[in-house]
Design a protein that fits this description.
By secondary structure, the chain is α/β, with parallel strands linked by helices. The chain has helices at about 45-60, 70-80, 95-115; strands at about 1-5, 15-20, 20-30, 65, 85-90, 120-130, 130-135.
Length: about 160
C-alpha cells in the first residue's frame, strides 16, 4: 500500500510512499458458542474469511491511502478517474491507527453480514518490521464517524465514498 499524511505531524510521511503491511485479525464466537460436534469448528474458515480476504486482495492491496481532505483527490478526479476506486480514504490522515479502526469496522461489517455469530476481538497492522498497531474496541464511535453510509461500515468491497 501507499499513503501520505498531510497534517504536518509526520514530516517524513508528507510525500507519497509505500509499505508492505501484514494485517492479522482475531475473531471469536460472539456468544461463546461451542464447537459444531460434527466438525469441531465454530465455522469453516472460508465462511469466516472469504469476504475479508477478497477485500484485502482486491481493494486494499496496491491502494493509495489518503485523508478525505487531501487535494490529490481532485487530481485523480480530473486526470485519472479510473483510479478513484484504488483510493482508500480515511477521516483525517491515514495513519496506521485510523486505518486499523477502519479495518476493524469493515471486518465487523463482514462478520455481521455473514450471520455466523462471529466478532472481531482485535486487529493488528504491522506497518514496518518495528512498527505495529493493535486495535480492539467495543465502541467504534469513539474512533470513527458512526454514519452507516461510510465505507468502513458496509459489507462490500468499497474503500472510499467518492462519487
Amino acid at each position: 500500500m501507499g499513503h501520505r499524511l498531510i497534517s504536518g505531524a509526520a514530516k517524513n510521511c508528507q510525500i507519497p510512499h509505500g509499505h508492505d503491511e501484514v494485517v492479522t485479525v482475531n475473531i471469536a464466537s460472539k456468544n461463546n458458542e461451542g464447537l459444531d460436534p460434527n466438525t469441531n469448528m465454530l465455522v469453516e474458515f472460508e465462511d469466516a474469511k472469504g469476504l475479508w480476504f477478497k477485500w484485502i486482495d482486491q481493494a486494499v492491496d496496491h491502494s493509495f491511502h489518503i485523508n478525505k481532505e487531501d487535494p490529490i483527490i481532485e487530481f485523480f478526479r480530473e486526470n485519472e478517474p479510473d483510479l478513484l476506486t484504488k483510493l482508500l480514504v480515511t477521516p483525517g490522515d491515514p495513519t496506521t491507527e485510523i486505518r486499523a479502526a477502519c479495518y476493524h469496522s469493515k471486518l465487523s461489517s463482514f462478520l455481521n453480514s455473514g450471520g455466523k455469530g462471529l466478532i472481531c476481538i482485535g486487529l493488528q497492522i504491522q506497518e514496518t518490521p518495528t512498527n505495529a498497531v493493535y486495535f480492539s474496541c467495543d465502541d467504534i464511535g469513539k474512533f470513527l464517524p458512526s454514519d452507516h453510509d461510510n465505507w468502513w461500515n458496509r459489507a462490500d468491497l468499497s474503500i472510499n465514498d467518492l462519487d
